[in-house]
Amino acid sequence: MIGILYFSATGNSLYIAQQIGKAMGGEIRYIPAYEGDGNEYEKLILVFPVYSFGMPVHVAQLLPRLTKEKEIVAVLNYGGMAGGADRLFYNYAQNNGLRVAGVYKLKMPENFTLTFTVPKFYLNRALKKADSRINAVIAKIQSNQSYLPNTRKTKEKTYLKNRADWHIIGERFSVTNACVQCGKCVALCPSKNILLTDGTIRFSDKCVACLGCYHRCPQKAIIYRNKRKKDRYVNPNINESDIGKDL
Question: Which three-class secondary structure state does DSSP give residue 60?
C-alpha cells in the first residue's frame, strides 16, 4: 500500500493528496499527527507546500526518521516562486540517506497573503489549471521513471533565515472583538502555538507560518499587524474540516 503523507493548512496539498489517492490508492496521513517511519507502506509520497523556497518545519522534521528502505516521491506546490525548493528537498532527503525516486512541483493558488491581496482572476485561473497539472504529475509517478530536480541552485540561506523568523509572524497576530472564542484556531494549529485562556486568544513563539488560523477563522477575527484585511483562502475543492485529518 502507498502512504501519502501530507502537510496542509488551507487545503491545496490536501487536494493534491486526495487526487493522488483516487488515482493510485493508498492511505492519506497528516504529517504533524503521523508518528511512524513509513515502514508500513510499500512506497511513500510526500505532499506539501513550498515555504520560503523550502519546506514546512514539520516536513523537515519528518525526513530524519523516515525509513531508508522505501522509495520516496515528493510533490511540492507553490503559489508564487518555488526558488529551487525541489532541489533543496532532494538535498535534505539525500543527506538523510533516503531513496528519492522523484521530486515534482506544481503551481497552486497563493495563500501567503498577509500583506497583499491576490486578484480573484489569478486564484480562479490557478484553480482551473490545477487538475491538469496534478494529473500530469500523477502520470509521471505512475510511469515509475525517476524524475529529479534539473537544477542544483537553491535558496537555502534565505530559507533558513526566514524559517528562523517564522515565529515572529505569530507574535504579530492579534484578535479583534469579532472573536467568539470558538477555539478552532487552537485545535487546528499544527505547532500548538495558540492558547485560549481566560476567554482570550494568545499566540506564543512557535508559529510555523502555515497561516491556517488566519485563513480559517470563521469570524475572520485573526489579523496581522492590526490590518483588517477581508480576503481569506481555503481550497474550494475540499471539505475544510478534512484538513489536518487522516483520510
Answer: helix
Q: In degrees rounded to 5, what are phi and psi of residue 202?
A: -125, 140
Phi and psi for 158 in degrees, rounded to 5?
Answer: -65, -45
pTM: 0.95
E strand residue ranges, the chain:
2-6, 27-30, 43-49, 71-78, 99-107, 173-175, 194-197, 200-203, 222-224
Residue 242 CA, distance from chain mean position: 14
The answer to whether 77 touches 16, Cβ cutoff 8 Å, is: yes
Q: C-alpha angle 103/107/110, rounded to 5°?
A: 130
CB of 138 closer than 8 Å to CB of 23: yes
Within 10 Å of residue 243's Cβ, how many Cβ atoms?
A: 22
- Average pLDDT in the chain: 95
